[in-house]
From TrEMBL:
Residues 220-298 form the GH3 middle domain. GO terms for molecular function: ligase activity. Signal peptide: none annotated. Belongs to the IAA-amido conjugating enzyme family. Residues 314-431 form the GH3 C-terminal domain. PANTHER family: GH3 DOMAIN-CONTAINING PROTEIN, INDOLE-3-ACETIC ACID-AMIDO SYNTHETASE GH3.2-RELATED. This is Uncharacterized protein. Keywords: Ligase. Pfam families: GH3, GH3_C, GH3_M.
Length: 460
């Protein structure tokens, strides 16, 4: 980064970092995201001083499991040190936008804390309160400034207005996170978006050697010392046969070809053997002899808001479970599709339903359809439910009931654009603006999940 952005050692980074609840496997092993393991380790807590890695967030806030207290303290410290902030970031773009939304909702209390020098009584974590006694001092001038910037309706360029020395945003905006780029540009006034690395809990894969490039140009150079990497050629039309009788053909790292797509397979020092991560990559070029890859998408993923990844089978299971609530009303789901609504923060899943109501006198009530939303959420994976319950990074699921015949109109539209009537299938996820407009123009009713889905830290 110092090759592209000078003097990063002369300021601080406002990074919103969080831990997640841990679980245990049936065999008793601790299961947690890799970053949670790192933040809770002595390597993080006792890390040596590095002028390039100085954060505004105190460790006590990062290590607080209560998401509200953690976010509040990190935002407060970021405001107190606003002129020292040279870069801002989170793991995903959605996390940074969630922090801006948090500021929109809580700026009055944050400003009051700065004005009086007294920490919000909602922050009860003893270690945070002790640490903030060393940091927080009354500052009426700063409090007035924050009030002036935040009290109006105009939040355009709010990042550079409050943190004027910010040089770039350090967030992942490839893959599903690309949907947040316009919103980030709005809040930041078009600050560069740096995608610095490609990693997962299973393995660290590689680096973006040109971190200040535009998001659509991001390529990651695989680091062969991080693990042993192999690749399954990916044909999006003719899916690879994965049966035992016909195992997929594996290509070594040195033998991939520019322009082709592959599913990455890793063997790691930690013990994973030929583990399929589920990422689809495209070879863009070579750096010396090391191939560089563009992240294309997660395999089979339909919906994603934050760290969640929901595929078609999971969504179908949720629809099936919710449909059972309609049986006593002689009602069934004729067709459905979905999309990830990220216009508001936090984003949420939207499911379009076309219903067959056999007896209008017994049609399901709003309360029943609201329960259908919750039934779908309860059927989704543990990462989704954790994001809903503890992280508040995903909003309540929404069902939009459309008029009868809507999905026939959708098919007619697809055929008018060249789709084959013999091969047409209802898309289970949509994002094309004209299709969204067609669906929304046929709305009958709108319903939201009335509560958070079930989730416990014991789930894996």
């Amino acid at each position: 980064m110092s090759r592209y952005v000078p003097d990063l050692d002369k300021g601080k980074g406002l990074y919103f970092l969080f831990i997640k609840a841990e679980a245990r496997t049936p065999g008793g092993l601790v299961a947690r995201p890799v970053l949670t393991g790192y933040y809770k380790s002595d390597k993080f807590k006792n890390r040596p001083y590095d002028p390039y890695l100085v954060y505004t967030s105190p460790d006590e806030a990062v290590l607080c499991a209560d998401s509200f207290q953690s976010m509040y303290t990190q935002m407060l410290c970021g405001l107190l040190m606003r002129e020292e902030v040279l870069r801002m970031g989170a793991v995903f773009a959605s996390g940074l936008l969630r922090a801006i939304r948090f500021l929109q909702l809580n700026w009055k209390q944050l400003s009051e804390d700065i004005k009086t020098g007294v920490l919000n009584p909602k922050i009860t974590d003893p270690s945070i309160r002790t640490r903030m006694e060393e940091i927080l001092r009354p500052n009426r001038e700063l409090a007035d400034f924050i009030t002036e910037e935040c009290e109006g309706e105009n939040w355009e360029r709010i990042i550079t207005r409050i943190w004027p020395n910010t040089k770039y945003l350090d967030v992942i905006v490839t893959g599903a996170m690309a949907q947040y780029i316009p919103t980030l540009d709005y809040y930041s006034g078009g600050l560069p978006l740096a995608c610095t690395m490609y990693a997962s809990s299973e393995c660290y894969f590689g680096l973006n050697l040109k971190p200040m490039c535009t998001p659509n140009e991001v390529s990651y150079t695989i680091m062969p010392n991080m693990g042993y990497f192999e690749f399954i050629p990916h044909d999006p039309i003719n899916r690879v046969n994965l049966s035992r009788d016909s195992p997929p053909r594996l290509v070594d790292l040195a033998d991939v070809e520019v322009g082709k797509e592959y599913e990455i397979v890793v063997t790691t020092y930690a013990g994973l053997c030929r583990y399929r991560v589920g990422d689809i990559l495209k070879v863009s070029s070579f750096y010396n002899n090391a191939p560089q890859f563009k992240f294309i998408r997660r395999k089979n993923v339909l919906l994603s808001i934050d760290a969640d990844k929901t595929d078609e089978s999971e969504l179908q299971k949720g629809i099936d479970n919710a449909s059972e609530l309609l049986l006593e009303f002689d009602t069934s789901v004729v067709e459905y599709t979905s999309y990830a609504d990220t216009k508001n923060i936090p984003g949420h899943y939207v499911i379009y339903w076309e219903l067959l109501v056999k007896d209008q006198a017994k049609s399901p009530s709003d309360e029943v359809l609201n329960k259908c939303c919750l039934a779908i959420e309860d059927s989704l994976n543990t990462v989704y439910r954790q994001c809903r319950v503890t992280d508040n990074s995903i909003g309540p699921l929404e069902i939009r009931v459309v008029k009868n015949g809507t999905f026939e109109e959708l098919m007619d539209y697809a055929i008018s654009r060249g789709a084959s009537i013999n091969q047409y299938k209802v898309p289970r996820c949509v994002s094309f603006a004209p299709i969204m407009e067609l669906l929304d123009s046929r709305l009958v009713s709108v319903h939201f999940s009335p509560a958070a889905p079930h989730w416990t830290p014991q789930e894996v």
